[in-house]
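Input record, target 12 of the design panel.
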């Protein structure tokens, strides 16, 4: 996602939710993607022990596949304001938000912006229980095998800004043919030397055409 596009979205977010501290997310902090962000303090207070990790249900996926991403945030205090920004490079085919929960309970965000280029979520009065943000991304149908999609995320509160750790990349896998074979019927008994009739069902569950050879032994 181009940095200017994320900045534009965050400027709009800041105008919509006046009073929410998004300065770092809009770039005022000078933090560049992939670098360690500066940690700020408010009124001399020490930063909280805020952590954030990203988990992909798979780090390899084929063209057209959908991958589920879970960002887990662990604040140790209740935060007045929290913004979560995820940038994708290159853009995915699509993205959609699945859920936001705190301690297992659904949470209503102040603002959400979800698209092929990234995710922006703004929360208020959140914590100290575990926060899980779940969203899905779909690999473009024309993605090439070996292509790498990178996730770059930050979490910002009134007290500090941190980078999201955990899984950082999704690699496009080679299209393959995969087969499920089921024996649907076979004769109960035959004499020695007689032919055996076997019926089977073969299903290609992969994303590439191919052939499957079946061999039977008695």
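The sequence produced for target 12 reads:
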């Amino acid at each position: 996602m181009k940095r200017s596009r994320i900045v534009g979205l965050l400027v709009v977010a800041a105008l919509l939710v006046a009073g929410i501290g998004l300065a770092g997310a809009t770039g005022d902090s000078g933090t560049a993607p992939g670098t360690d962000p500066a940690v700020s303090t408010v009124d001399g207070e020490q930063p909280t022990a805020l952590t954030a990790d990203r988990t992909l249900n798979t780090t390899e996926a084929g063209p057209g596949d959908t991958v589920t991403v879970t960002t887990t945030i662990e604040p140790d205090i209740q935060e007045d304001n929290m913004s979560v920004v995820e940038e994708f490079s290159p853009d995915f085919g699509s993205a959609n938000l699945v859920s936001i929960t705190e301690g297992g309970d659904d949470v209503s965000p102040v603002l959400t912006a979800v698209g092929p280029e990234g995710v922006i979520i703004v929360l208020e009065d959140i914590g100290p229980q575990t926060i899980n943000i779940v969203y899905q991304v779909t690999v473009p149908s024309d993605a090439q095998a070996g292509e790498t999609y990178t996730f770059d995320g930050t979490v910002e509160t009134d007290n500090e800004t941190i980078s999201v750790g955990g899984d950082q990349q999704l690699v496009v896998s080679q299209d393959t043919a995969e087969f499920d074979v089921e024996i649907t019927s076979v004769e109960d008994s035959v004499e020695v030397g007689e032919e055996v009739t076997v019926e089977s069902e073969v299903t290609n569950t992969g994303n590439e055409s191919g052939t499957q050879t079946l061999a039977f032994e008695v």
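Residues 14-42 have pLDDT under 50 and may be disordered.
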